[in-house]
Design goal:
single chain, 488 residues, alpha/beta, twelve-stranded mixed β-sheet, four-stranded parallel β-sheet, 15 helices, 34% helix, 18% strand, elongated
Amino acid sequence: MASSESSSQMKIVNGDAGYVLEDVPHLSDYVPDLPTYPNPLRSNPAYSVVKQYFVHMDDTVPQKVVVHKDGPRGVHFRRAGPRQKVYFRSDDVRACIVTCGGLCPGLNTVIREIVCGLSYMYGVDKVLGIDGGYRGFYSKNTITLTPKVVNDIHKRGGTILGTSRGGHDTGKIVDSIQDRGINQVYIIGGDGTQRGAAVIYEEVRKRGLKVVIAGIPKTIDNDIPVIDRSFGFDTAVEEAQRAINAAHVEAESVENGIGVVKLMGRYSGFIAMYATLASRDVDCCLIPESPFFLEGKGGLYEFIKKRLKENGHMVIVIAEGAGQDLLAESMQAMDEKDASGNKLLQDVGLWISHKIKDHFVKDNKMAIVLKYIDPTYMIRAIPSNASDSVYCTLLAQSAVHGAMAGYTGFTSGLVNGRHTYIPFNRITERMNNVVITDRMWARLLSSTNQPSFLKLKHVHEVKKAEQPLTPPLLDGGSCNGGGEEAEK
């Protein structure tokens, strides 16, 4: 195999038949003559019954699983898991964990499993929690984390470490890492946080420090590319059902009842889409990726009137980032951003509720009863469900195995059902979005029997902007965004 260094964040290895490995950095890439040690798991009774508990060094995971017989083998990522040799003695490890950005179900579970994984699998007893996000490295006290301290935290929502947006000062952060003698840094957060982690890794590498920077992707919106899904997403979809069910009960209990539910999804409508598909009570789903219009033939008002005549009630689910262009036209547009650089959105759920009321009651003299439900922060603040809890455990343990094996500058993530190590720049290069020319969105439209609201010119624009309908089967893209995902 031929290897080439594309950047300090990713190593490209080319093999036969179009095989491409997008590998992650390793401490040995820039720290010479590093000693190795036998993996403590060799004598761990928990692993004594496992037939093959070390991952083979050549094990990789394909990004795409749908292939043509004569097509290239395509992009692969390094498979996560324990290695026979480790690059840290257990007594020498001084790890830290930080959580950044918004809340998400499962944060405490990830924290717990990193601490317990380091302790129970590798005998590490020095783990610090960084209080309050990135700025906590240089402006707040640390919290000593032990298995006893974190024992019950998975039962609580939020994060025991606290979180914040912004506060990223690379120099101060790396100075603090050096001063405290930290050599493993676990960073839990979304795309902005992972971009920050990538910058920290670059500075650590520049200084030649034997410090692992490992990321765990967190975004409730599921908008991180490459990975199958982000932790907390399943919980969010499940909890959203409660709000949708309440809206449905309210709507069907009165004449011409309309329930409007606003769900999370600043730029990506995955929660709204999957919650709608799971519910079966939703008549219309509106997401940021699919433009819609209100007035005229084929517009939202016409569809609402038609559905009310057919059923006597309806439920509308709208993602928080949907319809922002329409909202900006009718209200004074704001261009403010939060500390993470995200645009501050206006409340589209409240706006569309008022527009619907005004149209039917004032303009058309049609009596409707509209109930608006916004469960956003209730969903973010709950503990993870069973599915996400298992996923959080595996993400955390994969990150620990990778750090002990000397890999750095990586994010732990699930690709095609296998845990992998993904270079930071692949996680941060773009945002994962619902592809509205894909089968999954077509399935939703078929399930709700709603119009697409796309005029012919919009369809051509969308197709031109997105990947082709028949993309190269093994190149780029996200496992849950393209046509291949729809066949899973």
